[in-house]
């Protein structure tokens, strides 16, 4: 497990799942700090290793008028401020090979989006930074196929890779989580379950992705029961007005009760 190698990570030896959590996109400094402060208070109480998540830009949007970011450097500086203010590691996704070195100056984990996880140049560029690389499983890929993405990281001289399952396409407008894939992918790298993106309903006619946030706890519980190493949850204090992925996000007010329940489940699973 590469968790202990991440700077500023807390509770790495708590035997709990770790958590990647935050807004979909960095919309501004105040919102990022507000969300981070709340999540950190919860995770410190529950002894959950925590990495703050926020996209510095959104490159894969359905429509040209969709929100893509507040500016690369501005957003990355906000991620750095979150890290320095709260002594917490951060993760952001990258979309081009040239993003890797730039983002690595500001964050601790580089995430490869699911649509791009087969892009060799992008994966290699991320691995070459020496940062942990979070490889999101393509919605179109089998669990077994993810061993090749992990191998690209290893062939680049790094063992710092995670796999994140974010669901598999089930028709044109729905996703499904196949929990059989978790033990398969755990053979290759630590496995994270992206709870909120697994509940997306893509390809809506209006060009804005839908979601099923009412199912967040159901999917998260199943992931913990099936021994995922980590959870990925996007959260916001005002999902209805979030600039990206609001339809499948967890309201920040509901995070504490969810994580409390999941931690109790994890303790039970650990005794088995």
Automatic annotation (TrEMBL):
Catalytic activity: D-arabinose 5-phosphate + phosphoenolpyruvate + H2O = 3-deoxy-alpha-D-manno-2-octulosonate-8-phosphate + phosphate
Recorded GO MF terms: 3-deoxy-8-phosphooctulonate synthase activity
Pathway: Carbohydrate biosynthesis; 3-deoxy-D-manno-octulosonate biosynthesis; 3-deoxy-D-manno-octulosonate from D-ribulose 5-phosphate: step 2/3; Bacterial outer membrane biogenesis; lipopolysaccharide biosynthesis
Cellular component GO terms held in the UniProt record: cytoplasm
Stretches that traverse the bilayer: none
Enzyme class: transferase
Any Pfam family hit: DAHP_synth_1
GO biological process: lipopolysaccharide biosynthetic process
Domain DAHP synthetase I/KDSA, first and last residues per copy: 8-260
Main location: cytoplasm
EC number assigned by the record: 2.5.1.55
Keyword entries, A-Z: Cytoplasm, Transferase
Annotated compartments: Cytoplasm
Cited InterPro entries: Aldolase_TIM, DAHP1/KDSA, KDO8P_synthase
Similarity comment: Belongs to the KdsA family.
Protein name: 3-deoxy-8-phosphooctulonate synthase
């Amino acid at each position: 497990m590469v968790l202990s190698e991440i700077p500023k990570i807390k509770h790495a030896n708590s035997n709990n799942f770790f958590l990647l959590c935050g807004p979909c996109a960095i919309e501004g400094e105040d919102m990022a700090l507000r969300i981070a402060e709340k999540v950190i208070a919860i995770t410190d109480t529950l002894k959950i290793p925590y990495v703050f998540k926020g996209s510095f830009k959104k490159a894969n949007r359905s429509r040209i008028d969709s929100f893509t970011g507040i500016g690369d450097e501005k957003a990355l500086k906000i991620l750095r401020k979150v890290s320095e203010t709260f002594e917490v590691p951060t993760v952001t996704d990258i979309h081009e090979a040239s993003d890797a070195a730039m983002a690595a100056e500001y964050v601790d984990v580089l995430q490869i989006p699911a649509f791009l996880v087969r892009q060799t140049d992008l994966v290699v560029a991320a691995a070459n930074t020496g940062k942990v690389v979070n490889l999101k499983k393509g919605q179109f890929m089998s669990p077994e196929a993810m061993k090749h993405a992990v191998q690209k990281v290893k062939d680049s001289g790094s063992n710092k890779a995670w796999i994140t399952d974010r669901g598999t396409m089930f028709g044109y407008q729905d996703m499904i989580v196949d929990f059989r894939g978790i033990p398969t992918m755990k053979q290759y790298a630590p496995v994270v379950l992206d709870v909120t993106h697994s509940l997306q309903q893509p390809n809506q006619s209006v060009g804005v992705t839908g979601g099923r946030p009412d199912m967040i706890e159901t999917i998260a519980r199943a992931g913990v029961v099936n021994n995922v190493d980590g959870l990925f949850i996007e959260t916001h204090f005002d999902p209805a007005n979030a600039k990206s992925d609001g339809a499948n996000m967890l309201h920040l007010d509901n995070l504490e009760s969810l994580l409390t329940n999941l931690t109790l489940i994890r303790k039970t699973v650990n005794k088995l």
